[in-house]
Specification:
Integrase_cat-core; Integrase catalytic region; 11 helices
């Protein structure tokens, strides 16, 4: 039910007083003019709803769409229910429509015939591939050391890099500091990783960076030094889909944790200082840190427990 406004009560009181004492006295008492009182007397039918202010919106507009234009718009909308505003306007213009885009928008909005956008296709991720034993697949990536951590004048302006390998089964991680970011450093890191990992490595997964592969360079058929070393060790090289870092999610997440636990609170005064602190942090604060996916065991515990009771995998 519509509410009764203060103006409606004022007009009702005004008309009741005018009926008893006349229009002139009512105009003086209520400080208004006689024409105002006569207008509301003509409109008053005994109900207070008749004293409500009516809309002053015009019923017609000199520039409103003609019946031919309306028919054209409705017919085109039936044939193009998903066409956006600009595309729909261009199609109308090709058939003689001469209105502006804002004018067309207002008409479509008023009629409730805006474009019906089909839902975006839902992304269905692939099922997660769970590893069955250590070394089945390791994720490898490179992290750029934040420049804010470099404090000595001898290292300010230089670039340090953290090479990271993480075993998907046990979450055991191996890191190493490098001053260069290229396929030679990647090959060196692989040599040290093979010596450090206590099981045989079957597959290494990386992104498509030039430090790992020539896939997106002019020498795509030529293997990098990193790939040559992989072949020498008999390790399969798996490349993730381009621009999809979530496929290397474990190593990417470990880098995010490094920002929170290590780089946010440490500073380095030389490359040797950085390499020493990084190695100490990884052994104490990562491989010995309990993780929920591992049943609140540490990566080192999971790896050692498996190797103590497992058999050799071909």
């Amino acid at each position: 039910m519509a509410s009764i406004t203060q103006d409606m009560r004022f007009r009702l009181s005004l008309l009741n007083y005018a009926q008893k004492h006349g229009v002139s006295k009512a105009a003086i008492k209520y400080k208004t003019n006689r024409q105002y009182i006569y207008r509301w007397k003509r409109r008053f039918d005994g109900s207070i709803e008749s004293l409500r202010e009516r809309s002053r919106r015009p019923l017609h507009h000199p520039n409103q769409h003609s019946s031919e234009e309306i028919k054209l718009i409705l017919d085109m909308r039936k044939r193009n229910p998903h066409a956006g505003l600009v595309v729909f306007w261009v199609k109308l213009m090709q058939r003689g429509y001469s209105r502006s885009i804002p004018g067309l928008y207002r008409f479509l909005k008023k009629q409730g015939i805006m474009a019906v956008k089909p839902p975006n296709p839902k992304y269905i991720p692939k099922p997660y591939e769970q590893m069955n034993y250590p070394g089945q697949r390791l994720q490898v990536d490179v992290k750029f050391v934040p420049s804010a951590c470099l404090k000595n004048s001898q290292v300010i302006g230089k670039h340090f890099f953290q090479y990271t390998a993480i075993d998907e089964y046990s979450r055991w991680r191996f890191v190493e500091a490098f001053e260069e970011h290229n396929t030679y450093s990647s090959a060196q890191f692989l040599d040290h990783l093979v010596k450090a990992f206590p099981a045989q490595i079957e597959c290494i997964q990386t992104d498509n960076g030039t430090e790992f592969t020539n896939r997106f360079t002019t020498h795509r058929e030529k293997p990098t030094l990193f790939q040559v070393h992989l072949e020498r060790y008999g390790i399969k090289h798996k490349l993730i889909r381009p621009f999809t870092p979530r496929h290397n999610g474990k190593v990417e997440r470990s880098h995010r944790k490094d920002n929170e636990r290590f780089y946010a609170t440490h500073t380095f005064y030389s490359f040797q200082d950085f390499a020493k602190q990084l190695k100490l942090y990884n052994s104490r604060s990562y491989n010995c840190f309990p993780m929920r996916p591992l049943g609140w065991k540490t990566p080192r515990q999971v790896l050692m427990n498996y190797l103590a009771v497992s058999v050799t995998h071909d």
